[in-house]
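Final paragraph of the annual report: two paired records, presented back to back.
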Amino acid sequence: AERRVAMGAASQRALADKQRQKNLKRFKVGSMLDALVRAGFPISAGDDLTDHPATAPEDGAGAEAAEAGGELLHLKPLTAEEVADHHLWPVAFWSGGPLREDLARTLMFDYMEGSRGVRSLQGGLAESDMQEFTGALVRQRAVGWRYLIGVKSPTSKRCFVHEAEMFHVTAKRREVPKDETDAQENQINYGERKGKLIEDLGTVKKLRIARLQAARKSREHKVADFGGYQEEMKARAEDLKSRHTPVEERDAEVKRRYLPEYTKEAQVPGEVYRNSVHDIAPPDLLKKESNTFLDGDLVEFLQRDAGAQLRALADAEAMPEKAREELWPCRTRFATALLATRARAGLRAKDGDAAVRLARLFGVANCLVALVQRGPLHRGGKSLPQGVGEICGIAPDAGLAIYWHAKFYDEILGKRKVRQFSGRKSLYALLIWSIQSLSPGLSLEFPPSVERELKVPAGQVKSALEFIGCQVTEDKKEAGGKRLHAKLEGPPKINFAHYDRQSKKSKDKGGK
């Protein structure tokens, strides 16, 4: 196989030489090699078309002008006699791209690139001084280019075209310093040469791929030091430890967010939420809406005997839950349960003024019940202050409606007036208002129908009572659930079991 390849190469070489001789005879031009030698160029011809630098002479003029590792080519200009005799010397350069502008101004010839069609540049050599052109290394030049030399006399319109012979020009090269640092700077690796060639000849796709490969090679890879990494992990652990918030602080933040102002250091249960009622409904705002919360029928009902009240309330509780008109004058089952608790304790209004004051307090409780019921449903829980007035049945521009909108609705990012309803805040406020202002002995008793009326999930009323500091017990079963008995014992306590469950869930989630 190797012998056949060698024989084929020799045959092709012989055919090329034969064709070259025919072209020389046909176009009546002499050998370029002979012409360049006569012009004074030190040229060594060869059939090997692979790129390799020629051996530079030891010394010579102009060698000092070349950069380290570069090549200096001397072009001998035409004399006046030669120009007069119309001597045109064909010259071919073996290069990987277009000629430089300064070289093209001196040498004009026709050339053709094999892969991109034919281009023509007509002209001739002009008289000029000695030109020196410093070029790149020969090994950086590309292969695969074909050049056509056009020879034309100034007095003739005919141009003889001849394919240039491939030859190496003996260049004068300045010696490269032996220092390793300079050698590394001058050395260009294969990837950079390939990228340069693609920039000159390649397509857009190949150019993009070459740039990506070059960027990938230039990317720095850092190896982490295990010791340093361990120290970094320790510092991170200390930072996370410092960020850890104790359970006490977390619980205090939750209570500050959802509960009205209360006395944490109170020793008596009645002192815990004494000032909270003013935070829920300020007296000055409540005074302006006093007639709104006043119901004459409820005032008359509150002055009845406790036994008569209890019998009427028992009949009302026995009615179906949908028969809201049977709850009159209580309006809500929540108020009915409060009145029943007071009647069982034997409480009644002492006089008409006391009944009026008590009726107004029940009116506030019924408004809070309506807010818990309809707050999440009214416009999807997002409302203006006017919406609170519509829900509670008071004037839309009332000061109490504006206050409750700011109290029981949370801010929405990017919204200045519209706020989001908070069910927990309103439910806690309703229970605290009822215990502190209306219940006998700071205790409450709720049938299962109250939780359904408030439209809250099962068990949420019990959890809310425990959250505000009540001791809650469940009585015998009734239709649809259990009756709740709650009594305020003191300030709200920390539910450590709740935070332990949260911590366990977070650990289990992180482990997965």
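The closing record of the year follows.
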Amino acid sequence: MEKRQTKATEGTAKNYQRDEHYFFRKEVLPKIYERVLAKIMSDLEKCEVLSFTSDCWAGTSDNFISLTAHGIDKNWFYKQRILAVTNFPGEHTGSAIAMKLRSILEQWRLEGKNVHCFVTDSAKNMCRAFKEVDENGSAILPFFNANCAAHLLNLVVKEGLSADLDIEKLFVKCRKIVGHFKKSNKALGKLHEIQEFLEIPEHCLLQEVSTIWNSGLMMIERLYEQKKAINEYAYQNCDFGLTLTSEEWSILEELIAVLKPAEVMTKGLSKSPISVVIPYARVMHDELYEMKLFSRKVDQVRTIMYNSLKRRFFALQNQKVYAVSTFLDPRFKDRVILAEMTSNVFRANVIAWIKAMSEPLQPEIFDFDDQQFTMPPDQSVSPPPKRNGSFFDRLNNIVKSNTDRRTPTEQHENIELEFQEYLESGLEETNSNPIEWDDEFDVWLTDLGILHGTRTCPECHGGMGLESARNGRRYGNWRCSNRQCRPTLGFLMVTFFSGSHLTTKQVFALSYYWAQQMGTKKQMMREFDIKGDHTIVDWFNFFRDICTQFFGRNPPRIGGQGIIVEIDETLAVRRKYERGRLVVNDVWIFGGVERGNHHRCFMVPVERRDAATLIPLITEHILPGSIIHSDMWRAYGGIPNLPQGYMM
């Protein structure tokens, strides 16, 4: 009998699981999909112009193609939405890519949308896709194709590293050393013992990934960091094939110096708009030009990278999208121009393009073939003395030092006057983001009343206006509109976030983690990029204080219609040395607890236990209609006569 019941129960459970899976697969997921689809289409409709990024890649068993839309809506909120990551079987020819991207655009009803540009890598099949035409002779993808600057820089680095056979052999040797410790736990444990003995960072070695160029830099950086440990390991094991010679270590050190600016540029490009391509290329150009190296082989790598950078990046300032984007970026304007072009020529080209912006953007295709630009293939580099400073410090110096006189036009039209005023205005800090000048989250906080939407001057009681953020600050100041008054207030002053170095998003995220009791301090430091755990502790204490103040001003009431509440008083005392007589300063506490599942309670310190003190506390903390159980203390005698309707 029990076996039959068990089988019946198992069958019911399986059927329930099947029904549950069917319900979510057929009912819930389609509804969620439709809601997300409508939300994405609504966001895209708010953007007057869209740009797209796309890529193709091969997985372990399937090939894929992706398409992501980017735009800025009328409120200057940046929108980025992934439209497709879909299977892409067959040959990845130019025509196949063009038809696939066209079908995705039609699926999202974006084929008639005003498209700014498509950003892809510079692979020949991708470039070919934007040249393909249909049977009517019309372009399948009639859009401007901007090549991914990070991919171009990847080609620059690979071209430099593959120029010298000895450099390639050195990388093979480095991969062999790393592979030895990756494959042997015994060797790895011995390496950790040596690291601990030599008191150097106990870091693991990193292996190069062929598809990611900067993984090679990470590999040789970590090897050079662990130079002493690797040499000691090779000496103890009498296997000097597991280390490098002194000359090879010197080459490795100079290779790191050559490749480091390229890594900084790659990371900067991966999180920045297209307007930074020309300025970053200028900094990279100057970095390579001014390096002073001693190894002939590494200097040859630097020279080839320098020439490749000029060949691939200098032509970008002749393209409308790159030039106009850089010019309209308030961090750069016309201050960061690559060599072989003057600022006057750059400005003239940009102004002419902007005047013609009412015309449709014509497709421009640049394949960046080696024969396309007539530049000397082996142009030598004479390095002047090296200057100090990081990649972005150099960018700041270039922007601030380029203050050439601009030639005024004889007769200004309105648009030319705007250009002149724009060029004469100050520059934003290079580490700021010109797009995210008004954060969507802060606008939401303003709508909730948590941040100030308007401010009143504390002196003249007039209105105050919000200035734009300057000098790399996240927010501008509130300034009095009265010119004779003009005091300023910080944007976050007299708000929940006053005096905090964290952003509003970081504070709200911390409050969520605190309320849900999620994660550890180390996890939060890593997740929200917070430097010290004392910041998290301080904010958690602040959250507790706020809750205490809230419940102090809004005490909860327990009980309710027909619910039993037990009340009593007790004396809170502390005996001297835990024994003997009572101390004089004892405290009476009056409280109540609710019977049932919730077990809600309250406790209040009182000075007296008479009816004048306890009855008001009962009405304050216990809901009308409650059934009150007590020890029949004489002060409770008036409870049944209360108008709120309590029962004893």
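Residues 19-147 form one domain. This concludes the annual technical report; the extension proposal builds directly on these records.
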